[in-house]
C-alpha cells in the first residue's frame, strides 16, 4: 500500500483480497483508530458513526478460526 495525494486529501489503496475478506465494498465507511500504544486499526463505521463489531473477532482481537495476517 502507499499514500497518494489527491485534491488536498490523501488516499490509501487497499488490497482487493483484504476488502473482499472483510465484506467491504465501494462506499463502505472506514475509520483509522489509534490505541494508547500508537497502533493504528482500520474499522468499519455504520451509518450512525459507530464502529461495526465483527462477530468473527474475539475480545482478544484475534480472528476466529486461528488465522492471522
Distance between the termini: 15 Å
Order of helix and strand elements from N to C terminus: EEHEE
- State the secondary-structure class: mainly beta
Mean pLDDT: 82
- Helices, by number, come to 1
Per the principal axes of the C-alpha atoms, what is the gross shape?
Answer: globular
Helical proportion, percent range: 10-25%
Counted beta strands: 4
- Unreliably modeled segments: 58-69
* Radius of gyration over C-alpha positions, nearest whole angstrom: 14 Å
Report the sheet-strand fraction: 25-35%
Largest sheet: 2 strands, antiparallel
List the topology elements:
Blueprint: E1 3-6, E2 9-12, H1 16-22, E3 30-34, E4 40-44
Please characterize this protein's 3D structure.
By secondary structure, the protein is mainly β. The protein has a domain at 23-56. The protein contains 1 helix and 4 strands, in the order E-E-H-E-E. The strands form 2 sheets. It has a two-stranded antiparallel sheet. The protein has a two-stranded antiparallel ribbon with strand order 3-4. Strand 1 and strand 2 (9-12) form a beta hairpin. It is globular, with a radius of gyration of 14 Å. The relative contact order is 0.11. Mean pLDDT is 82; it is low at 58-69.
Amino acid at each position: 500500500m502507499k499514500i497518494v495525494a489527491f485534491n488536498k486529501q490523501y488516499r490509501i489503496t487497499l488490497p482487493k483480497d483484504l476488502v473482499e475478506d472483510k465484506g467491504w465494498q465501494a462506499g463502505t465507511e472506514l475509520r483509522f483508530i489509534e490505541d494508547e500504544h500508537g497502533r493504528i486499526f482500520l474499522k468499519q463505521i455504520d451509518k450512525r458513526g459507530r464502529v461495526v463489531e465483527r462477530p468473527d473477532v474475539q475480545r482478544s482481537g484475534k480472528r476466529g478460526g486461528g488465522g492471522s495476517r
